[in-house]
Design goal:
5-stranded antiparallel beta sheet, 4-stranded antiparallel beta sheet, alpha+beta, single chain, 175 residues
């Protein structure tokens, strides 16, 4: 009969090596899961900033589209009169876009927060051609408006661009 001198089981060195390999694999899995959650948070911030700014700009565009008259215009503010005779002003103050209706509230109601930049470009009719300008000299000739706003959310900044034709303006040619 043969005698088996080999012991069954693992040596200390084998246990240490297998423990080290498991620790490396566990650390890799943890870092992968953490990175995916960080990416998800960045994407949520991006989507939130885009949705929030788009909703506010769309509301603004809807009110401009139906404006009966534009009474004041420059590169960061516009005042319009709607069909109900209400005077509505939109402007950028600090990092917010504000709105008043018939000058109430006097300090303005915040429509959009965390606005880095706001740029308004007006399309005016010169009598022979459409001209783009930041500060129209005659608000009665404004037929369209191009809005560009950069809105921040967390570490993410997104640009929202919108164009609007003022429907109730009947000028020579459509913008």
């Amino acid at each position: 009969m043969k005698r088996n001198n080999r012991r069954r089981g693992m040596t200390l060195m084998e246990l240490l090596i297998s423990g080290l390999i498991m620790a490396l694999i566990g650390t890799g899995i943890y870092n992968m899961i953490r990175a995916s959650y960080d990416s998800q948070n960045r994407i949520i911030n991006q989507n939130t900033s885009i949705a929030r700014s788009r909703q506010a700009v769309d509301d603004w565009v809807d009110q401009l589209r139906g404006a009966a008259n534009v009474t004041q215009a420059d590169n960061t503010s516009v005042t319009l009169v709607n069909n109900a005779g209400q005077s509505i002003k939109f402007w950028k103050s600090g990092t917010n876009i504000l709105r008043t209706i018939n000058s109430l509230p006097s300090a303005g109601q915040i429509v959009v927060r965390d606005v880095n930049t706001l740029d308004l470009t007006y399309w005016t009719w010169s009598g022979t051609a459409w001209i783009s300008t930041k500060t129209p000299s005659n608000v009665a000739t404004i037929g369209g408006l191009h809005i560009t706003a950069s809105v921040a959310m967390g570490n993410t900044s997104r640009q929202v661009v919108s164009d609007v034709k003022i429907r109730q303006r009947r000028l020579k040619q459509d913008p």
